[in-house]
Design goal:
The structure is a single chain. It contains 14 helices and ten strands. By secondary structure, the chain is mainly α. Helix 8 runs antiparallel to helix 13 and helix 12 crosses helix 13. The longest helix has 32 residues. The chain is globular and about 60 Å long. The termini are far apart. The relative contact order is 0.11.
Length: 419
């Protein structure tokens, strides 16, 4: 605080206090600024083209939802008690389970589905706020509060956690035929028919390129898009995952997303961090949802195979065939594998190079054969603390940086391999 006297006046000293805006307002402003930059970046990377009529508009999404997010983050609306929040969660995910069960019926009752969906919508905003609070509490418990830019003495969790439960866009993934490598992505409308999906893929494929249209669980725009028809734990983890992307965006790792190793590093780090944030959130808020009421679809007879093992084995065999230039054999093997999974109750519409290129960016998944996955997992094993883990990996920009970090931790990178 500083004191001044105004010349020519006897009004006494004037006290000037430093500006102290609400922390949530600062956090929201930072997030909104980042979102504008992200929109510009994505529009350049994902640019519109021949598929414009099917494409998803991030700019429109943000225009429709950002103002509402600011009101929500500033606390406009009903303040829920812990008990009220848990009750909203139970109702929302109970209805989700009922909707998914009806969708599995031989002849789904469309009137019933509409009634259940309309009822669930009554709880949506409250559930979004509850989950945002759970993720916020977990991240703060992990020590992830930090100073805001230009306001170094102000520590807050930022960007603020902000989600929207909805039907997310689909993504068109392209890959060269002779190798597994992302060649481009295009976000598409969420409600495409199978005929439209096959038309889009047909227009994209050629003798050098293959494609696939895939669903996604979430998207790190602001507010983050989170798939609405998933279990409570899945929604909690996805909300955590997308927030981690916003956290990383202010560090070298997030800024390196469009480099060769960037997507795999970012997605793998987010996968590891999401697990820990969700674990802490469930420890702080031990909500117990009954079986059949936690958002999952009714249980089916478990497949008589281990998906993780067989999918990883398929990926490694395909890698070997492509490395030898045996493209047609690799494609035949992928189709054979798809039919094998379907025979055991696991339906995957299409497995091709683009399918593996997309899921391969998440290097902890069995569809990946990238050594970045086990290396990031090893960093987690050596640290075991989310704040320390993120403080180390957020500075990475390449697999070479990751190897150097492992050496600093006393681990020989050459001993960490894909199993």
């Amino acid at each position: 605080m500083k004191r001044f006297r105004l010349a020519g006046l006897d009004a006494g000293p004037v006290e000037l206090h430093p500006w102290q805006p609400p922390l949530v307002l600062l956090s929201t402003t930072a997030a909104a600024t980042f979102t504008l930059a992200l929109t510009i970046t994505l529009s350049l990377v994902l640019g519109r083209g021949a598929l414009a009529e099917y494409e998803y508009s991030i700019a429109r999404w943000q225009a429709d939802h950002l103002a509402g997010s600011i009101f929500s983050l500033l606390g406009v609306g009903e303040e829920l008690t812990e008990e009220d929040g848990e009750e909203r969660l139970r109702e929302y995910f109970r209805l989700t389970s009922l909707i998914r069960a009806e969708l599995q019926a031989e002849s789904p009752d469309r009137a019933l589905l509409e009634a259940l969906t309309n009822e669930r919508a009554l709880y949506e905003n409250d559930v979004e706020r509850v989950i945002e609070g759970y993720v916020t509490n977990a991240a703060e418990e992990a020590g992830l509060r930090r100073p805001l830019p230009l306001f170094g003495k102000v520590e807050v969790l930022w960007p603020a956690v902000d989600i929207e439960l909805t039907n997310p866009p689909r993504v068109l993934v392209r890959s060269p035929r002779n190798e597994i490598r992302p060649k481009g992505y295009t976000l598409l409308q969420p409600d495409l028919t199978l005929d439209e999906i096959e038309l889009i893929e047909g227009q994209t494929d050629n003798e050098d390129t293959v494609s696939v249209v895939l669903p996604i669980g979430g998207l790190a725009v602001y507010p983050a898009i989170i798939r609405e028809d998933r279990s409570y734990y899945s929604v909690l983890r996805t909300a955590s995952h997308e927030w981690v992307h916003f956290y990383l965006a202010f560090y070298p790792l997030g800024l390196a997303y469009n480099t060769p190793d960037g997507p795999t590093l970012n997605e793998t780090v987010a996968n590891v961090a999401e697990r820990e944030i969700a674990r802490i959130a469930r420890e702080l808020h031990p909500v117990e949802l009954p079986e059949g009421g936690d958002g999952r679809a009714p249980a089916r007879e478990p497949p008589q195979l281990v998906f993780q093992i067989e999918m990883r084995d398929l990926r490694l065999q395909v890698d070997a065939l492509l490395a030898e230039g045996r493209v047609e054999e690799a494609e035949a093997l992928m189709e054979e594998g798809r039919l094998h999974f379907m025979e055991h109750g696991i339906f995957i519409r299409k497995i091709n190079q683009a399918y593996f290129a997309f899921y391969g960016s998440y290097a902890t998944l069995p569809q990946s054969s990238d050594p970045i996955g086990p290396k990031v997992e090893r960093v987690w094993e050596e640290t075991g603390d989310l704040r320390l883990f993120l403080s180390l990996v957020r500075e990475l920009q390449s697999e070479a940086d990751l190897d150097a970090l492992l050496v600093r931790l006393g681990v020989d990178p050459s001993t960490v391999t894909v199993e």
